[in-house]
């Protein structure tokens, strides 16, 4: 489904913005990039700022008009910082746009269109769109650069796809260190108790110090490696106490 979601950049002036936008796309699983009359492309700056998304840049298609770029799309959403006089349906919330876009992408290509860095899309280009979307931002300074706008809307789109029951999305799992068994924890606490008594740290036979330390380590959930490290420290302290 994500392969049906196209990013279209219209007359991008700085080639670096093409690369940065490609990077923003790839982090969100999007790979279909179409460029409408870019000022300078291909360009080493685009590849440099892609930073690992060079494949998206290399596969980008260059066309001469927006109508050509979106001819096969069933939904075309133009990103615009301001409302136009042309009466298109407008999404005030990018999340609503993303849900609609993903739903339509099940059957056919759809597109997100971004205009020039300085003044966005023209009114004629807006007419090639079926919808508009704006990114809510600080009303006193709502200026996003091109790749930032691509990142925000690509993120919303990826999130809408990810939450679908049939997306099969699986978040990367971090490798976790094994926890100690209760027996290993028991040996550690016995070891700790010996050292605390031998060092003179515990002088009152009914002190709750050991109980509080047990609770502390239960909350901390040390790994087996942590316990091994602590027991090594305790063994070193025992040797020092014995040499006194």
TrEMBL record:
It is an enzyme of class 2 (transferase). GO terms for biological process: tRNA nucleoside ribose methylation. GO terms for cellular component: cytosol. InterPro entries: Alpha/beta_knot_MTases (IPR029028), RNA_MeTrfase_TrmJ/LasT (IPR004384), SpoU_MeTrfase (IPR001537), tRNA_m1G_MTases_N (IPR029026). Keywords: Cytoplasm, Methyltransferase, S-adenosyl-L-methionine, Transferase, tRNA processing. Its main location: cytoplasm. Its EC number is 2.1.1.200. Residues 5-155 form the tRNA/rRNA methyltransferase SpoU type domain. GO terms for molecular function: RNA binding; tRNA (cytidine(32)-2'-O)-methyltransferase activity; tRNA (cytidine(32)/uridine(32)-2'-O)-methyltransferase activity. The keyword Methyltransferase applies. Catalyzes the formation of 2'O-methylated cytidine (Cm32) or 2'O-methylated uridine (Um32) at position 32 in tRNA. Belongs to the class IV-like SAM-binding methyltransferase superfamily. RNA methyltransferase TrmH family. Homodimer. This is tRNA (cytidine/uridine-2'-O-)-methyltransferase TrmJ. The gene is trmJ.
